[in-house]
Specification:
This protein is α/β, with parallel strands linked by helices and 240 residues long. The protein folds into two domains: 119 residues, D-Maltodextrin-Binding Protein, domain 2 (3-Layer(aba) Sandwich); 101 residues, D-Maltodextrin-Binding Protein, domain 2. 34% of the residues lie in helices and 25% in strands. It is built from nine helices and twelve strands. The strands form two sheets. Strands 1, 4, 5, 6, 7, 8, 9, 10, 11 and 12 form a ten-stranded mixed beta sheet that branches. It has a two-stranded antiparallel sheet with strand order 2-3. A hairpin with a 2-residue loop joins strand 2 and strand 3. Helix 2 crosses helix 8. The chain starts with 7 loop residues before the first helix and ends with a helix. Pfam families: SBP_bac_3. It comes from Chromobacterium violaceum. Keywords: Signal. This is Amino acid ABC transporter substrate-binding protein.
Amino acid sequence: MLLLLPPLSVAGERPLELVTLQYPPYQYQEGAGVKGFVVDIVREAFSRMGRTVHVSVYPWGRSLAMVETGQADAIFTLYKTPEREARLDYSRQALMPQAVSLFVLQDSTIRFDGRLGQLAGYRFGVVRSVSYGAVFDTAARQGRIRIAETAASGEQNMEKLVARRFDILVSNRLGAWDIIRRQHVEGLVRELQPPVERIPSYIAFARKPDLAGVRDRFDAELEGMKRDGSYARLVSAADP
C-alpha cells in the first residue's frame, strides 16, 4: 500500500505566529476568531505554501514589540519606515495598498482636486497619534491645513463630523467606510475624490534563523494570487 505523506519541507515545520491590530475591515477580532479580508489574503498565501498560521490581535505597540523581539514570527499590515526596515524583514510584494481619503457631510459644498492647499480655510478632524501619510502629515505640520478637532478613535471622529464640529474628516478609506456602515450614516457622509495619497502596506517577518526563505516564498504566492485573480476577489469583497 502506498502511503501519501506531505512534503518533508512542510511536515516538520511549526505553525507560524502572526500578530496584527484591531483594524476593521482589514483585520479584526470577532468572538474567538480573527477575521477580515487581509487576514483571508494572508491565510490563503500561507496555505499555498503549506504552512499553518495562528493570527492574534493585540494593541499595535505590543504587536510591533513581539515581532521585533522574536516572540511572533510576522506582523501585518504596516507601512515601511527606515527604522522598521532595520529590524524587520519586509515582504517585497505590497500586501495591501491603503488609500487616505477625505470625507464631508452630504450637504457640504466642499470640492477637492488633489491639492490640500486649496482646503486651507476649512476645519479638519483627525484621530490622536495616527499618521495619515507623508502628504497629509507634512501639510498639517507646516500649517497649510488647520486641525480643529482631535478624537480618541475613528468612531468618535465620525460622530464629530456628523455633529458639524469640523468640516473635513481624514481617514484610511476602507476604515472610514466600515465606520460609516456601522454607525448607519451612509446618507449623511460622502467621500471626496481623489484620495489624498495611496500608501502600500506590507507583512514583515522577524529576523529569525528558522524563517530564512519564508519571506521569499510568501512573496511568490502573493504574486501568484494577484495573477490568478484570487487576490482581487478577496479585496473586492470589502470595497464600498
